[in-house]
Amino acid sequence: MFSRGDTFFVNSRLREKADFDFDSEADRAPKHLDIDFIRKWERGPSAFSLAHALTIDDDAAEAVSIYGEKEWGGSDSVHQIDLSNLTELSEISANYLAKAVRGQWARDSYDWILLKGDLKARVSGITKFTIGEEIAKVWIQDNEMAGDNKGDSKRLVNLKNFNDISDKAALLLSKFDGPLSLGGLTEISDAAAEALSKYEGKDLTLWGLATLSDAAAESLSKYKGKRLELRGLTSISDSAADSLSKVQGSLFLGRLTSLSDSAADSLSKVQGDLYIGSLGGLPSLRSKPLAEKILRKSWPNAFKELRDMSDEVAEAFAQGDEGCFDGLISLSDAAADALSKVEAPLSLKGLVSLSDNAAKSLAKHRPTDERDRGLCLRGLTSLTDVAAKYLSKHEGELHLNGLTSLSDAAAKSLSKHEGGLWFEELTEVSDTALDSLSNYDGEINFGDPAEWADSLREG
Fold it and tell me: Domain residues for 46?
């Protein structure tokens, strides 16, 4: 196959004018493209024409597919390659050219290879783009020369535009010592995973993978860098979780939609930081060890989208300062009691109902920051008189924005609350209830209670 050689990419400022001898027009613009002609064309593209070619060899197609003339000085000038007269392509050649048509270089929107008719449609329809040995070599050579941008240069090849990688290319890239982002990969072989596990850079990014075999997980668990990015995984087996628990650095898993209790317990043993996103994809979190692990290095709103939790997990949260649980749609009395001990302002926007005992517990919520003692229950559409009586004893802003009705007894209780009230959807409320709330000693919706009550009467 094609071998680049030292003159594949050259600085056009230093390129000496090539002295080509042509016996005929066919020498300059042949009907068939082979590797010998492409090698000459690389040295002086303006002296040759590819536009008259009807056929092309596979190794010549490979060379063309990775050709991108850029000056090392940083110019964005790249040749557009005219192959519009080709009449046939082998499957191998089509796959090579597809990489360039898709835009394997820095800009996806540009067609680097001009084709026509059925060939263009055929090449454009190819969806699997594999990082082969030659592509890996080009990327490594470019990034070795990139100085401070080592590992980030996309001047010649953008690895993120590829969704597959050969085992040999993985082995080559594993020896690169700069940052390595392979976020476009959607699949990876066990052999490629084993090769990449030997990568010595600090960050290994594989966030495009939606699945990971047990063997691949076992191999990647041996990666010794600071950060392993697998945030595209939607599920993970118990065996894979057990393997990944041995990761020495930080582990990122941001899109899980299923996780067994056993797998969750295993992941809690990761030595470095563990990031599992907002947990919105998980139907439930029932592992207290995992909750405690995440809390040790909690990202803001890390549990905002969590839809359900066990009482044991709620107990773990009671020891932390994370108070945003807007994804919860139900809350047991025991969990409410645990969350009332959270030291941060408490937001439970997703709850649509609340038991009297849960209200009694949440009313005791006392964040450490006296300037922000809010309790947000804006998802509730109704409230019992008993629950209202309990919540009236809460100290701090009380958000009941979603309530559509309020009894006279509930209104009388809430009128004794201290810290500010919020109502936005009330439509069923009597004059008696409004009289009670108009005497509220504080603000309602950041305004005067009497004026707020009058506006409801008029509305």
Answer: 25-124
